[in-house]
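Hello again, I could really use a second opinion on something today. My current little project is about how a certain protein chain folds up. You're getting the sequence in one-letter code plus the fold written as tokens. Here's the protein in full, and shout if anything looks odd to you:
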Amino acid sequence: MSGKLYAIGTGPGASDLITERAARLLAQMDIVYAPAARKGGDSLALSSVREYIGNQTEIKERHFPMSNNTEEKQQAWQAVTDEIVSDITAGKKVAFVSLGDVMLY
């Protein structure tokens, strides 16, 4: 069975500004991925949607380096991509949340 990936933009970061559809989808996810700018830091995108995430949902905050080092960024992005693909292949409903328009990235 194959899962599905949902790219969910959180808007400017205020929890009352996400769409009803985004809130409904977040409540149904198996896994939500959220980017964090600092290792061990909080994800701003996650903080704006946390209240909509279901109790059954696993949250995976992943560090996305804010660096000029292209190789470092690409390695981090690839690791997260591989993890997401593995979850989808396992049949999970997965969301990736990001500030602004997530499809821009």
